[in-house]
Amino acid sequence: MEKGTDLVVVADPDKDVQAGFERLFGSHMRVACFSETEAALQFLKQNHGTAVIFSCFNLPGRGGTAFLRAAETIAPQAARVMLTRENSADAIKKTLNEAHAFMYLEKPCQSTDLASAMETALSHHFQLAKDRALLERTLAGSVKLLIDMLALFHPEAFRRTSTVRKQALRLAKRLGMKKTWELEMSVMLSPLGEALLPKQILARYRAARGLTEQERNILDRAPDQTRDLLKNIPQLEKVSEYLFLSGRGFDGSGFPKDGPTGKEIPMIARILKLLTDLWYASPESGPDAAAFEALTINKRKYDPMLLELAKETLMDDVPEERKRLVAECYIRSLRPGDVLIDDALTETGHELVLSRGHMLTPTTIRRLEHFHQAAGVRQPIRVERHSAPEEALIDTA
Question: Which residues cross the membrane (predicted)?
């Protein structure tokens, strides 16, 4: 019989039990056996599609009851079955009330009884999955309506969601992520904390103007506000945690200060961090070489695998002229001979200071400095850098 895709996890140190499951179900299901709790939980974290989880009561590690309770959080759609020799009222009570087990079976268990229990558990799993899919579609529609309404009052905060969602789905496909609902919800809700911030702080941040320590603290705590808003909504508990950690750098920088580092940060939070910063670094036309160069300057903040994959994935359909390496500079770093990639605009009024395609000279750079002192100029400024020596340039401004 051809092996199916249903995945069954067996947590029991008894090698005879493990062999029995392999013998009964290994030919037509995927069976993963473990002898203690932590390895089994780690496996579940990497295989959210698990259909059925079997556990013994006296499982090495944290015990069978605590294991099934933790498994419920990691794989809520999996049917959980306690298979044990413990038949005391206390054991049964803990199994049902604390572990929230779907079924309780006593050892030794006949093969026919175990096969019947597996069939019943699979049916329960399929019903949970069906209910979850319906709930996700309903919740997704509600979230979209909420975002559309909030965007009317705070369009600047939510204008990135459409672009970032498409980029996130492309990355998810390359990563082999089969379930993308939580990723999509995280992207759609990611600006929620920003929408609650004072608009002047966001304007200064987007224009690369300096922020006071108090303003920086307010900005950094936007993910915390988002988590507080979402954590009590059923089915969005994980999403709220991803958003809470979305400002956390791979190197341990950012918010929260005592949060996880490296690969301990959930993958969805790492994707959000990368794509949000990429969006801010990109022009209206989308990411280009300059945007990725800006991220590379602070590459320790990002998962190196994700950064490389994003560059490879999101740049594959970018016109060749936008793939050229350009510089992203603050005014003090501009050089004569640099050519503006975008219009140079004032920070608040968006008044045109210099148009795109303009080759900078010492005079035009001073003009930008004067405008910045008077009204502020949006920075950083993206330029194409030429190799001509400064003394060969003619100042025509």
Answer: none
